[in-house]
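DM from R.C. (forwarded with permission)

"hey, sorry to bug you on a friday — could you get me a structure for this? deadline for the figure draft is monday and I only need the backbone to look sensible"
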Amino acid sequence: MIRVLLADDEAMIRAGVRAILAVDPEIEVVAEAGDGREAIDLVLSHRPDVVLLDIRMPRMDGLSAVAELRRVAPGTAVVMLTTFGEDDYIARALGEGAGGFLLKSGDPRELLAGIHAVAEGAAYLSPRVAHRVITQLTGGRMTRVVAAREQVAALTPRERDVLALVGAGLSNGQIARRLYLVEGTVKAHVSAILTRLGARNRVQAAILAHEAGLLDSVEPPDGEVQ
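My reply, with the result:
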């Protein structure tokens, strides 16, 4: 049996969710809470496998409760079940450790699937939420790629060569041998690259090299001597 605790400040919502869960013989509702603080207390006393949390509740909201539950009951999986699908709510809930994010307006089958998934240690997002997360990640990635390529375009061809090898993890000595340069010249190039890119260190420069796609044609440094 998957033991579930419901937390929502609206009794009718809890009754509706309980009715949906009752159709699954492998799910048992062991307790109900009307706010986040009560949910945490009941989790400690009942030790459910899964907690269904609403976001907006009195005393302690669902987002704050997720963070507290990760600390006091790390073995209990958390699924957010809410009306609110705003990006900041989704990001914060997942960042705090929620294993699932479902919308109350979704298909009841999503609720059952989500509970089974997180109880088995997997993650589960309703299709609408998953679409928003993917859009956010893809959009953010593309934005970083474009920005990195614009920054790198300002470098000279030789500086781009050096930056690519910095991104591949090569030392100044390895870069010098690879490009047939004096090590002092490589150091000068690296210093100029950091200044022109506004990077504080080689790590930031390496990240830009990755995002700009400079490493695509770089051979791995295996076998080279430091």
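R.C.: lifesaver. The beta strands are 2-7, 27-33, 50-53, 77-82, 100-103, 124-125.
me: no worries. The chain has ten helices and six strands.
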